[in-house]
Amino acid sequence: GQQLNQSPQSMFIQEGEDVSMNCTSSSIFNTWLWYKQDPGEGPVLLIALYKAGELTSNGRLTAQFGITRKDSFLNISASIPSDVGIYFCAGRDFGNEKLTFGTGTRLTIIP
Amino acid sequence: EPEVTQTPSHQVTQMGQEVILRCVPISNHLYFYWYRQILGQKVEFLVSFYNNEISEKSEIFDDQFSVERPDGSNFTLKIRSTKLEDSAMYFCASSEWSGALHFGNGTRLTVT
Fold it and tell me: Is there a contact between B31 and A96 if contact means CB atoms under 8 Å apart?
C-alpha cells in the first residue's frame, strides 16, 4: 500500500528558530495536506495543497507541493511555544477518497 | 468557525459489547469519514461516506463495523462486537468536497 515517510521524527529547537519538515511518498498524490495535533485532540488543518509546485503560506507556515507529486515540505518560521505538537502530512491520490497519513514529526521547544 | 463534534469524548466498554460513536459533521459538508489512531501511532483511514453510501473502506473496516447517517445531521460508527485491539481514538471528519478534511476531537474507546 501507499507509504508516507515523514522526517524528522522529532525536533528539539529553541524559541525563535525556523523549522523544516518533509514528507515523501512511494506513489503520486494529487492532494497534500498538513495537520497539527495537540495531545488529546483531533488533527487541525494547517495548509492544503492541490497543485504540483504550489507554494502556500498560512501566517508563519509555508508548505509546498513537490513537482514530482511525491513529496511536500512544511516550514515554520520564528517558532513560538504554541507551535509545540505533532505535525502530520497527509496525501490523497487520484480516484481515492482516503487520506494516507505520515508518521508525524514531534516538535518540542526547549526553553 | 463551524466544527465537527463527536460524542462521547471517552467510552469504556467490555470486550464483545456493541458501541456506537456519534458525530455531527459540519453542516454544509457532503463527504464524511471515520479514522482511528492507536495510541502513539499515525492516523488510519477506516471509511468514507458520500451520497448516503460507503464510497471507500479500508481493510480494517470489516463486518464488525458499520456506518449510518440516520438523519440530516448525525453520522455514526457502530462496532458490533468490540475486541481489545479496537481500543483507539476514533476521529470523525467531513469535507465540503473531496478536498481538505476537518476533524473532530475524537472519541477515546477503551475496550477492557
Answer: no
